[in-house]
């Protein structure tokens, strides 16, 4: 009996979050306001390592690498400005990185606390998660609101938040395998 109890305790302690790969059909986008008009864009090139199981959130881990040089808004003028030193400064900072520090559930809603680095500025952020496991895969929808000036995105004339809004909404739909 003691052996069986000890074995069960060991197995319970060995529980791990499930590791997922991200399907290439996954998306990472953003939206904001410029002169009172909404604009949106996407980062077609990114990778993510997802380790997640609702039954073991303590072991959960999300890590995302973003190739910011892949940014596109569908507007050539915006895209040209975004690559320059006043925004993402592709020459110096071609990548952004997020890594979670904790995944929690409260009232049925999941959140991931973590650190986001853009332009060598690392700031704490919280992501809202909608995780829907299905068989060996599932989907993970993510949303966050970032303060662009916290990361020096849009400096000099572009720091005026009446021209370009202070908040940028980031959304992602990850297809997990």
TrEMBL record:
SUPFAM superfamilies (UniProt xref): YceI-like
Entry keyword set: Signal
Residues annotated as signal peptide: 1-17
All copies of domain Lipid/polyisoprenoid-binding YceI-like, residue ranges: 19-177
SMART domains the UniProt entry points to: YceI
Superkingdom as given in the UniProt entry: Bacteria
Protein name: Polyisoprenoid-binding protein YceI
Species per Swiss-Prot/TrEMBL record: Tahibacter aquaticus
């Amino acid at each position: 009996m003691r052996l069986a109890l000890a074995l069960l305790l060991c197995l319970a302690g060995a529980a791990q979050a499930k590791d997922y790969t991200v399907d290439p059909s996954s998306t990472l986008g953003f939206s904001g306001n410029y002169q009172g008009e909404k604009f949106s864009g996407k980062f077609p090139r990114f990778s993510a390592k997802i380790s997640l199981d609702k039954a073991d959130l303590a072991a959960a881990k999300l890590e995302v690498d973003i190739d910011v040089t892949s940014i596109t808004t569908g507007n050539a003028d915006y895209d040209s400005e975004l690559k320059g030193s006043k925004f993402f400064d592709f020459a110096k900072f071609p990548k952004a990185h997020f890594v979670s520090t904790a995944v929690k559930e409260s009232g049925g809603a999941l959140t991931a606390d973590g650190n986001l680095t853009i332009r060598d500025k690392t700031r704490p952020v919280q992501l809202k998660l909608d995780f829907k496991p299905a068989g060996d895969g599932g989907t993970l929808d993510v949303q966050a609101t970032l303060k662009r000036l916290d990361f020096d995105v849009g400096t000099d004339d572009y720091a005026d938040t009446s021209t370009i809004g202070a908040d940028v909404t980031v959304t992602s739909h990850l297809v997990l395998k």
